[in-house]
Specification:
With about 100 residues, this protein is an alpha/beta fold. The chain is about 25% helix and about 20% strand. The radius of gyration is 12 Å and the shape is globular. It starts with a strand and ends with a strand.
Length: about 100
């Protein structure tokens, strides 16, 4: 599984795989929300080249491994939304 920093996501679509309540609390601007539990059924919505993000990086790593097994280009955002927020990246809301 490949990881990139939040700053390295500039040219990639961002897919947030956290649960609805986490998404509502705060998320990256322009991110697409597809909860991890819905990835299989919504696979056709995941853009190739996606930067997958969760709270800290664990769930996004699992999703990236799944996507890579299906031949998709995907990377995990190291540190997740916690790091995203800590680095002052653009957000809707805040992350607690």
């Amino acid at each position: 599984m490949r990881e990139i920093t939040p700053a390295e996501t500039a040219d990639r679509p961002i897919v947030d795989v956290r649960e609805q309540h986490e998404w509502e609390a705060g998320h990256a601007v322009d991110a697409l929300h597809i909860p991890m539990s819905e990835i299989v059924e919504r696979l056709d919505e995941v853009p190739d080249g996606a930067a997958v993000i969760c709270r800290s990086g664990a769930r996004s790593g699992q999703v990236v491994a799944f996507l890579e097994q299906r031949g998709m280009d995907a990377v995990s955002v190291a540190g997740g939304t916690l790091r995203w927020a800590a680095e002052g990246r653009p957000m809707v809301g805040t992350v607690a």
